[in-house]
Amino acid sequence: MAKIDKKDQKILEILENNSRIPITRLAKKTHSSPQATHYRVNKLISEKIILDFPTVIDYAYFGLTEVKVYFKILYTSSKIVNQILSYFKDHEFVSEVIECGGNWDIVITYLVENLSQFNKIFHGDIEKFQKHLDPDLILFSIVHHFLPKNVVIGGDRKPIKFKKKTKKLLYLFALNNRITIVDLVKQLKMDSKTVIKRMNNLKKENIIRIFTVNIDKSLLNKTIYKILIRYSNISTKKEKEFFNFIKRQKGIKLFTKLIGKFNVELEIETEKNIELRKLIFEIREKFSSIIQDINEIPIYHLHKRSYLPKKILKD
Question: What pTM was computed for the model?
Answer without folding.
Answer: 0.93
